[in-house]
UniProtKB/TrEMBL annotation:
Catalysis performed (reactions): Hydrolysis of terminal non-reducing beta-D-galactose residues in beta-D-galactosides
Transmembrane segments: none
Pfam families referenced in this protein's UniProt entry, alphabetically: Bgal_small_N, Glyco_hydro_2, Glyco_hydro_2_C, Glyco_hydro_2_N, LacZ_4
Domain of life: Bacteria
Organism this protein belongs to: Catenovulum maritimum
Catalytic activity, EC: 3.2.1.23
GO molecular function list: beta-galactosidase activity; carbohydrate binding
Gene Ontology BP annotations: lactose catabolic process
The protein's name: Beta-galactosidase
GO cellular component term, pick one: beta-galactosidase complex
Residues in Beta galactosidase small chain/ domain copies: 783-1055
UniProt keyword Protein transport present: no
């Protein structure tokens, strides 16, 4: 049996995983925490490689020092080889590309790799650093996918698998002074791949950094530093368990091991020295081994939390009998306490109840795949902080340890998740003894690598791998080894021995229609979870499911959504409702949005056009299509409209009106560990979107969870009847933070002070020149015109087909009703729009029958044309067009839609306008795209943009660019001429550079070819975007954000804009 097809072989000669790989010559160097000062030599850079398609044809002669590799090409390390044309990337959710039975019910062939298994051979030479002499030399691989052998100078050193954790090998006896050769043989697939079935691109290679490290012969191999806080949080201890590398205790005679704790100013706050041979004590037969061989006491410690990431630096120094420093090691320390209040189900950090406002994060970059740079990781962390996220789940594998360093420094709670997902096989691996060692290895090594990071508040046993003894065993090990964090695993659900357990039907988890059949079973509770997990974790509950969980008499633990609000495409529509509920229930501790980044890979068409590829675009079979475009940032790391909405939902203060006319507002702190007085309050009075009054106030002192009333001085100027007035309130950083400068906006709210009078006559547009109107009634059309404007109404369709103003053709396609939208992912997944009858709305306006078309009145000042339209007596429309001498046109609709008709996606009208009209300004919600269920974070204002800049480029083109609560919308050319739409009620509006059919049909951005006109949407309303999930009925928007059959009416004005 091949090593890489044997679950019993998970590493050969691999060193035990340790928390901190860096060794320093002096305590001064260690105190810098700068690994560039450590005994470290990077082997990143260009390596030579050879790629072979099948592991049956492996040639290992290349490992020999004298093997000629001059003909081999080079590849950067770290990297994923498939992104350099070596094999193809596979994107699958649950299927296994290496498993020939991925689409059949053939007999199980695990752990074998039953398709061709590509192998990449790597080599490079390096010079052994002079300061590594007389030291042990360690070869460190941060991450290699999926399994590999390593040779040094022709001698096999070892083997490892588990692609998201480091593998270290002692190569002291293999290296020599001067030039050395390292060789790797990397198998794309291994038995370990059965435990790496995550929803992601399956790409391989040396994807994390390669380092050459050195340490003394007698060294601090590892240590565990546990902070412990007194119940009153006024004092603390740092308990340290060190481990040494030494041949025997006698070698340590008169040696000393010191621990020093430094504050942020590099001042020692506590220290202790012990005899080094104490560390080598034998393990007792019965008693519990003493953990705190070193213990550092601290009075009035500055506590660590995501809001207050106060850090100390621990320096351990090993000295020989002569007092000479042999080695120093260091790490950041945060004093924080994580507990669960069993009486209330609250999650407590430092005694304070917190909410997890988090996101799931995959390693991903559009061009680098999973081979991220430190700059990429820092970009993610900075963006999370700036958008008010306070937590990250490393879905579904340990991330690069640099992410944890940054989380410690910048302040993010981390759920550290093990690289265990056997999604395709469910719980098979956890229940089969032959997989126990591999599963335990992945979980234990994660804990050992990351145990000293204060940002980690939870260990997660993996993802979607069923439930079985392996999970129970791993949880037991963690609880005994590190009780300072809570244990999470969503798959641990349901106890058949429970007296209230009812076996649910298949598919019950997400389908609410079946819940009524489950009798006593609380939705998704089932009714309790195994005791080896500390929280009740669920994926993609609806708001009502979540309410049922919170109110369940069976659940006594905190309730966490490890994944929720599936942000696939244009989505994330239910955040307001989720978080209104979460804030109202102590035992709902929040959750992690799915997910952080769209997993598109930059690719090119045959014509060289760049686009973001998804499953199937590389010829990968099997694949899961575009199911990986779920990010609240795009594949290049840019904020999406969903991220802007997230920032608002997670902002650290709730701002509400008390007596808004008097400027009286209430500030409710949603901070957990810091005071609201760290912010400055700014206010602004807007008149039709423009600031007419503004100022600043110091935010009052408001403790976490408390609230105070604040008075904002409003303008003494009177409000004009034809103007709309808003009060904007925002909070800004008073001083610099590590992640943002002073003045950065962290929160905002808006209140309507006075609404405007709606336009009811053409006199509202008195700035336009007037001229007498005439109407020409011929067999095919009505032609209405004056010396400034001309309109045509087609008698066969009843539609306004032409609008020309001062010789500029504004309208290029008719103004028609519209009930459809380019399908979002949630439309397809939630409503099943392809099969539920809603397709009737796609082209229904083209099927209208004209029941009546007549001129109601005609004068030189005003002409009114009314059309009665009908569809099978199910949809009846009265369309009234009023033309005025100043060239303004009032468009009014009355609709009567039979309740037997299916729901609509919008009620509105649409027309094409000439391409020259590219400049957009509007008074409405912005600046980012928003919808009825994702608009609270978008504020009413006066915005300028272009047609192109309003477009949101989803990987699969779909409905986008909408803005709600629009008073008016203007499209002009570069000279300032064009068209203005003014609503007699709030409108939803958008403009696209393509027509609706193009957007609806397109599967990739390259399908959106250049159009000769723009499409203008003028809607009364549009359905929300939904997104509880993206594959069941829960994907559709909540009931309050749907467009249902009934009676509607709305009106707006089309007003020409004259640059003169």
């Amino acid at each position: 049996m091949k090593d890489w097809e044997n679950p019993a072989i998970i590493g050969i000669n691999r060193l035990p995983t340790r928390a901190n790989p860096y060794s320093y010559d002096t305590a001064t160097d260690a105190l810098t925490l700068d690994r560039e000062n450590a005994l470290m030599h990077s082997l990143n850079g260009q390596w030579q490689y050879r790629y072979q398609e099948d592991d049956e044809k492996i040639d290992q002669t290349f490992v020999n020092p004298d093997f000629d590799t001059s003909s081999w090409a080079t590849i950067p390390v770290p990297s994923n080889i498939e992104l350099f044309g070596l094999g193809i990337p596979y994107y699958t959710n649950t299927q296994l590309p290496f498993y020939s039975n991925h689409n059949s019910s053939l007999p199980d062939t695990s752990p074998l790799i039953t398709r061709a298994n590509p192998v990449t051979s790597y080599t490079r030479e390096f010079e052994l650093p002079a300061n590594f002499a007389e030291k042990d030399v360690i070869l460190h691989f941060g991450g290699v996918d999926s399994a590999f052998y390593v040779w040094v100078n022709g001698t096999k050193v070892g083997y490892s698998q588990g692609s998201r954790l480091p593998a270290e090998f002692d190569v002291t006896s293999f290296v020599k002074p001067g030039k050395n050769k390292i060789a790797l043989q990397v198998m794309r697939w291994s038995d370990g791949s059965y435990l790496e079935g995550q929803d992601m691109w399956k790409i391989s290679g040396i994807h994390r950094e390669v380092l050459l490290l050195a340490r003394p012969k007698v060294a601090i191999r590892d240590y565990f530093a546990k902070p412990k806080l007194a119940d009153d949080y006024q004092s603390a201890k740092l308990e340290i368990r060190p481990f040494l590398t030494v041949s025997n205790n006698k070698a340590l005679k008169d040696w000393q091991l010191s621990a020093e704790l430094f504050d942020a100013n590099k001042q020692v706050v506590s220290s202790q020295t012990i005899a080094a041979d104490q560390v080598m004590e034998a393990y007792p037969q019965r008693e519990i081994i003493q953990f705190d061989l070193l213990s550092l006491a601290v009075q009035q410690p500055k506590l660590w939390s995501a809001e207050t990431p106060n850090l100390y630096t621990l320096v351990l120094t090993l000295k020989d009998a002569n007092g000479k420093v042999i080695e120093a090691k260091s790490n950041q320390v945060g004093f924080r306490d994580v507990r669960i209040d069993k009486a209330t189900g609250k999650l407590l950090v430092n005694g304070k109840s917190i909410k997890i406002m988090g996101v799931n994060r995959h390693d991903h970059h559009a061009t680098r795949g999973k081979a991220l740079t430190r700059a990429d990781i820092l970009h993610d962390v900075l963006l999370m902080k700036k958008f008010n996220l306070n937590a990250v789940r490393t879905s579904h594998y340990p991330n690069d340890p640099y992410l944890l360093e940054l989380a410690d420094q910048y302040g993010l709670y981390v759920m550290d998740e093990a690289n265990v997902e056997s999604h395709f096989f469910g719980g098979q691996m956890s229940n089969q003894p032959q997989w126990l060692a591999a599963i335990m290895d992945r979980i234990v090594r994660m804990v050992e690598r990351d145990k000293n990071h204060p940002s980690i508040i939870s260990w997660s046993l993996g993802n979607e791998s069923g439930m079985g003894p392996a999970h129970a065993a791993a949880a037991g090990w963690i609880h005994d080894y590190d009780s300072s964090r809570f244990v999470h695993y969503e798959g641990a659900q349901g106890q058949p021995e429970h007296t209230d357990f009812i076996q649910p039907p298949r598919g019950w988890y997400w389908v609410p229609e079946k819940l009524d059949n489950l009798g006593r079973l609380t939705p998704m509770a089932n009714p309790t979870d195994p005791t080896y997990v500390d929280v009740v974790s669920r994926m993609y509950p609806s708001v009502e499911h979540l309410r049922g969980l919170a109110d369940s008499p069976y659940i006594k633990r905190p309730i966490l959504m490890c994944e929720y609000d599936h942000a696939m495409g244009n989505s994330l529509g239910n955040m307001d409702e989720f978080w209104d509920l979460i804030w109202a229930r102590d035992n709902l501790i929040g959750g992690f949005i799915w997910d952080w980044m769209d997993q598109g890979l930059e690719h090119k068409t045959a014509d060289g056009v760049k686009f973001l590829a998804y499953g199937g675009d590389f010829g990968d079979v099997p694949n899961s299509g575009a199911f990986n475009q779920n990010g609240i940032v795009d594949a290049y790391g840019n904020a999406t409209p969903e991220l802007w909405q997230t920032k608002y939902i997670f902002q650290p203060v709730k701002i509400s009106a008390v007596n808004i006319a008097a400027g009286e507002i209430n500030l409710q702190s949603r901070l957990f560990h810091s005071n609201l007085n760290q912010y400055e309050l700014r206010y602004q009075v807007l008149e039709d979107g423009e600031a007419i009054h503004q100022g600043r106030l110091a935010a009052p002192s408001i403790a976490p969870g408390e609230n105070k009333t604040v008075f904002v001085p409003l303008t003494k100027r009177g409000y004009l009847p034809n103007k709309q007035y808003w009060l904007n309130i925002s909070l800004h950083l008073k001083s610099d933070k590590l992640w943002a400068k002073a003045g950065f906006e962290v929160a905002k709210e808006q209140f309507l002070l006075k609404d405007k009078q709606i336009p009811t006559s053409a006199k509202s547009f008195s700035n336009l020149p007037t001229a007498g109107l005439t109407i020409n009634d011929n067999a095919a059309e009505f032609i209405i015109e004056n010396q400034h404007a001309k309109w045509r109404i087609n008698k066969e369709s009843g539609l306004l087909e032409q609008f020309v103003y001062q010789n500029n053709q504004i309208m290029t396609k008719p103004l028609s009703l519209n009930f459809w939208r380019p399908q979002t992912d949630n439309d397809r997944g939630g409503w099943r729009t392809a099969s539920n009858g809603m397709q009737v709305w796609r082209d229904l306006p083209s099927k209208f029958e004209i029941k009546s078309l007549k001129v109601l009145s005609k004068t030189a000042d005003k002409i009114v044309v009314q059309t009665l339209l009908g569809f099978e007596d199910k949809v009846n429309v009265i369309q009234t067009l009023e033309f005025y001498a100043n060239a303004a046109v009032k468009v009014a609709y009355k609709l009567d839609i039979d309740t037997d008709m299916p729901e609509m996606l919008r009620i509105g009208s649409q027309m094409a306008v000439a391409k020259q009209y590219q400049e957009v300004s509007f008074l409405g919600r912005g600046p980012f795209e928003n919808y009825s269920d994702r608009k609270s974070g978008a504020k009413v204002g006066l915005y300028q943009a272009t047609v192109d800049s309003l477009h949101t480029s989803y990987m699969v083109p779909q409905e986008n660019a909408n803005h709600t609560d629009v008073s008016w919308w203007q499209l002009t050319n570069t000279q300032g001429s064009g068209l203005k739409v003014v609503g007699e009620q709030s409108l939803s509006m958008s403009v696209w550079a393509w027509d609706q059919a193009q957007l609806d049909k397109a599967l990739h951005t390259y399908d959106l070819t250049e159009s000769i006109e723009n499409t203008l949407n003028i809607d009364l309303m549009q359905a929300g975007v939904g997104g509880t999930d993206s594959w069941t009925s829960l994907a559709a928007p909540l009931d309050t954000h749907r467009v249902k059959p009934g009676k509607y009416q709305y009106a707006y004005w089309l007003v020409p804009v004259n640059a003169k």
